[in-house]
Write a structure and sequence with these properties.
Order of helices and strands: HHHHHEEEEEHEEEEEHHEHEHEEHH
Structural class: alpha+beta
Radius of gyration: 22 Å
Largest sheet: 7 strands, antiparallel
CATH topology of the largest domain: OB fold (Dihydrolipoamide Acetyltransferase, E2P)
Helix content: 25-40%
Low-confidence stretches: 1-8
Number of domains: 2
Mean pLDDT: 85
Oligomer: single chain
Distance between the termini: 31 Å
């Protein structure tokens, strides 16, 4: 992506990380007028997708009753051409459908979903905000966790640069089990250092599909790469559009991070007689461990809830 998008989260329309096309597959196929995808290309869970196909079925597919509706004609033409949904969305350059658009039975569809979880993450582009890094096109929870909406509607989550610099390298990170439910604004994991613990909050509702096994043996991976290899888990959301309206995105996340940095500076000055200073344009990597008399519980209560 080039430049920082200004699309806000309050629209509830998911911004899919790393995908430049946001047009509904039925629009790309010419079946309906141009509209943006509202479900992060999770066609199997999309009410609009079901409506398009239901309308097609209701109008009849038999030769005895040819459809006069141009949308139905276009849909028939599409099925004859057999262009895969993933080709229409722009995720793959070329693929023909061999399952009559029954993606539930399609091994290719399942392969793409599995690969999306297992593919190693590259470092995203970040913007600086008062000494802390803000990853572009990520959503942010006020408790300093992030959510990255990925193709197919899944959401990858983790802790942001601010929180991990604030509490420093962790000795242990405990994640929920596969299939467990998480809820927005509720604890999703437990981190620990030197007998202290904290429970970062989940940015979305949903079910855990995958967890980052690297964090089991190397919890500090999260500190080294908070927006990349240090991710916590992948979630199948249950209320994505509603949840996104409660998160920060784009320029608003930068302004919020500036405010959080100022709050932190005031707090440290008040409680520890210390003023936070940036080193080389970035905040120190372990604020709790560096600043004398820093209060873990106060820091967690102020910024992670």
């Amino acid at each position: 992506m080039t430049g920082h998008t200004t699309q806000g989260s309050k629209t509830g329309q998911p911004f899919i990380y790393g995908l430049t096309n946001n047009q509904c597959v039925w629009s790309r196929a010419g079946v309906v007028k141009p509209i943006a995808c509202i479900n992060a290309f999770d066609c199997l869970g999309c009410a609009f997708d079901r409506k398009v196909q239901a309308d097609f079925d209701a109008r009849g597919q038999s030769d005895a009753q040819p459809a006069a509706d141009p949308r139905t004609v276009r849909l028939r033409m599409l099925m004859n051409q057999r262009k895969c949904r993933h080709m229409l969305s722009g995720r793959v350059a070329y693929k023909l459908c061999g399952h009559g658009y029954d993606c539930v039975r399609c091994p290719y569809d399942q392969m793409l979903e599995d690969n999306g979880i297992q593919t190693p993450l590259s470092e995203p582009l970040c913007d600086p905000a008062s000494g802390f890094n803000v990853a572009r096109d990520y959503y942010y929870h006020h408790g300093h966790t992030w959510a990255r909406v990925e193709y197919g509607g899944r959401v990858r989550v983790g802790m942001d640069d601010f929180a991990l610099r604030l509490l420093g390298p962790q000795e242990k990170i405990e994640l929920p089990g596969l299939g467990e439910a998480v809820a927005q604004n509720r604890p999703q994991a437990k981190i620990g250092r030197g007998g202290h613990t904290a429970q970062p909050l989940s940015p979305v509702d949903g079910k855990v599909l995958a967890v980052n096994a690297k964090l089991t043996g190397r919890a500090d991976t999260a500190n080294q790469s908070p927006y990349g290899e240090g991710w916590f888990m992948v979630i199948q959301p249950t209320n994505l559009r509603r949840n996104l309206k409660n998160l920060l995105f784009g320029t608003e996340s930068l302004a919020w991070m500036d405010d959080e940095s100022q709050r932190l500076t005031s707090l440290l000055s008040e409680t520890a007689g210390y003023r936070l200073a940036a080193t080389g344009g970035e905040a120190v990597s372990d604020i709790y461990g560096t600043i004398p008399n820093a209060d873990w519980n106060r820091l967690v209560a102020e910024f992670l809830v």
